[in-house]
From TrEMBL:
Assigned keywords, A-Z: Hydrolase
UniProt GO molecular function: hydrolase activity
SUPFAM superfamilies: alpha/beta-Hydrolases
Organism superkingdom: Bacteria
Ranges where the AB hydrolase-1 domain occurs: 22-241
Pfam families for the chain: Abhydrolase_6
Protein name according to UniProt: Alpha/beta hydrolase
Record keyword Hydrolase present: yes
C-alpha cells in the first residue's frame, strides 16, 4: 500500500483525509490493502482510518474477539475522534459488533460485510495441509466468487502466514473465539443505523447469515452484491462503494 503505517503509543494504523471519520476493520487474515479501493474512493470527503488489529501481538491467553474490541476502544479514546462510522469485514465486522454493543455512544453507524458473529464456514479447527501451496491456494480461492480475485500475491501472503507456527496458532485461537462468541442474543441492542453489504455467493458467511442479521438488527438495511463472495470491497469495489456512499449520504448528510 502507498499509505504510511503510523506507529504511535502502541497503536499501528493508517489515516488519510479529513471530515467525518470512517474506521475500517480488517478480517482475520485481511491485509490493509483489502481496503485500498475504499480508501481511494472516500479519502477526499472523509477521514479514513484503518487500525491494524493486534492479532499477532496480544497475549495468546487473552486473545479473542473481546480483546480486539477493547483494543479498538483504547484506540478510539486515544485518537479522540468523537463518533465514528465503523466498517468491518469478516472478523472485523464481528469486532465492530462487540464494540458497538458495549460502546454505542462511540458509533454513529455500522457497516458489516461478510461479518462473523452468527455463523461462519471458515478454515475450521486446523490447516491439515498448510505446507501445500495448492491447498492454501484452493482455500483462499474459496473466499471469492471469482477465483482469479485470489491473486498470487494474496495466496503468497496467506501461505507465508499459515506456515509461521506462532501466527497460525494465533489465527486458530482467534477463529475459535469468533465461533464461540455468537451474538444472536446481543445484536438487537444496536439501535444505530446498520448497512449490511453482502456477497450473494458468500460461502464463508452465507446469505442466510445476512438475512438473520437483518432480522435481528432493528435499524438495518440489506444490500446484495451479485456474483460475489466473502469480501465485496475487494471483488466488486465499485458496487460496494456505491452502496456505502448512498448509506453515508443518508446518515451523515441529512
Amino acid at each position: 500500500m502507498k499509505y504510511q503505517v503510523i506507529e504511535e503509543d502502541g497503536f499501528k494504523y493508517i489515516e488519510t483525509g479529513k471530515g467525518e471519520t470512517l474506521v475500517l476493520l480488517h478480517g482475520l487474515m485481511g491485509e490493509l490493502s483489502n481496503w485500498e479501493l475504499v480508501i481511494e474512493q472516500f479519502k477526499d470527503r472523509y477521514r479514513v482510518v484503518v487500525p491494524i488489529l493486534p492479532i499477532y501481538d496480544l497475549p495468546i491467553l487473552t486473545l479473542g474477539v473481546k480483546a480486539l474490541s477493547r483494543y479498538v476502544h483504547r484506540f478510539l479514546k486515544h485518537k479522540n475522534y468523537g463518533q465514528v462510522v465503523l466498517i468491518g469485514n469478516s472478523l472485523g465486522g464481528h469486532v465492530g459488533l462487540v464494540f458497538t454493543v458495549a460502546h454505542q455512544e462511540f458509533v454513529k453507524a455500522l457497516v458489516l460485510t461478510g461479518s462473523s458473529g452468527l455463523y461462519e464456514n471458515a478454515f475450521g479447527g486446523s490447516f491439515p495441509r498448510r505446507e501445500s501451496y495448492d491447498y492454501i491456494k484452493e482455500k483462499v480461492e474459496f473466499t471469492f466468487y471469482d477465483p482469479a480475485t485470489a491473486t498470487p500475491e494474496l495466496v503468497d501472503e496467506v501461505f507465508k502466514t499459515v506456515n509461521d507456527r506462532s501466527r497460525v496458532i494465533r489465527i486458530l485461537t482467534m477463529a475459535k473465539s469468533a465461533i464461540r462468541h455468537n451474538m444472536a442474543k446481543e445484536v438487537s441492542k444496536i439501535t444505530i443505523p446498520v448497512s449490511l453489504i453482502w456477497g450473494k455467493n458468500d460461502k464463508v458467511t452465507p446469505p442466510e447469515v445476512a438475512e438473520e442479521f437483518h432480522q435481528l438488527l432493528p435499524n438495518s438495511e440489506l444490500n446484495w452484491v451479485d456474483k460475489c463472495g466473502h469480501a465485496p470491497m475487494m471483488e466488486h469495489p465499485q458496487i460496494f462503494n456505491a452502496y456505502l456512499e448512498k448509506f453515508l449520504d443518508r446518515i451523515l448528510l441529512k
